[in-house]
């Protein structure tokens, strides 16, 4: 299996010790591992991003776009017990007067609703605060993406405001986005 876990296989891992990533560039979450991306992840990412439940929020990824935007130093594959269940990415604003990072995430639907998104995002956020020395991180879900908003609140993100007609959806119309931010001093860890 390349992607996906049923709740029944994921749930027992909650009590498991933190994954061992020593000696690698991977980042350990409570149960997930964030693994630097490579060409070996392309087909799993395509499977995830083309799933209708993910595509409605991410939209329009083909092989070329996955390679261009999701591989490289700003992307990680999200693994659970060795299986790729999702991806996280970040970008950095390097103007010193506006320095911050922005993040995004997608998990395969089989992995939704088990706290794994919050675990993955928390792990990336911790890396950006502690190892890349950011003080502010933003994320911008669709204003109607209630599960994503709830998951991000769990990590500590707070709503800043609605960005009207912010992004164009798969249906070709412009949708509102919710800007959320998280400051280092407010990160529960
Ligand atoms: C968004 C996403 C990363 C969240 O990860 P997840 O592992 O599913 O979310 P979590 O389990 O961490 O948290 C989900 C929360 O939303 C709640 N929730 C689930 N469905 C919901 C719904 N329809 N409406 C409101 N809240 C909902 C859950 O109860 C949980 O809250 P709780 O911890 O208070 O119980 C994941 O669902 C995903 O990849 N979705 C598809 C792609 C996507 O939307 N990406 C985000 C683009 S900004």
Automatic annotation (TrEMBL):
Coiled coil where?
A: none
Q: Specify where the region named Disordered lies, as residue ranges.
A: 1-21
Q: Which UniProt keywords apply?
A: Acyltransferase, Transferase
* Domain N-acetyltransferase span(s) in chain numbering: 32-185
Per its UniProt record, what InterPro entries does this chain match? Acyl_CoA_acyltransferase, GNAT_dom, N-acetyltransferase
At the top level, the lineage of the source is Bacteria
Name a GO molecular-function annotation.
Answer: acyltransferase activity, transferring groups other than amino-acyl groups
| Similarity comment | Belongs to the acetyltransferase family. RimJ subfamily.
Q: What is this protein called?
A: GNAT family N-acetyltransferase
Species the sequence originates in: Pseudonocardia sulfidoxydans NBRC 16205
């Amino acid at each position: 299996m390349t992607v996906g876990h049923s709740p029944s296989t994921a749930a027992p891992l909650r009590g498991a010790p933190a994954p061992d990533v020593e000696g690698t560039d991977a980042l350990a979450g409570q149960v997930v591992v964030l693994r630097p991306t490579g060409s070996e992840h392309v087909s799993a990412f395509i499977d995830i991003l083309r799933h209708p439940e993910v595509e409605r929020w991410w939209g329009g990824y083909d092989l070329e776009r996955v390679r261009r935007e999701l591989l490289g130093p700003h992307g990680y594959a999200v693994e659970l017990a060795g299986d790729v269940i999702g991806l996280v990415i970040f970008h950095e604003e390097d103007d010193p007067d506006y320095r911050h990072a922005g993040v995004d995430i997608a998990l395969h639907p089989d992995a939704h609703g088990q706290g794994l998104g919050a675990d993955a995002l928390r792990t990336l956020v911790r890396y950006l605060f502690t190892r890349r020395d950011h003080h502010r991180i933003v994320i911008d879900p669709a204003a109607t993406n209630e599960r994503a908003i709830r998951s991000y609140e769990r990590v500590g993100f707070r709503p800043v405001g609605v960005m009207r007609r912010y992004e164009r959806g798969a249906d070709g119309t412009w949708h509102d986005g919710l800007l959320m931010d998280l400051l280092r001093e407010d990160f529960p860890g």
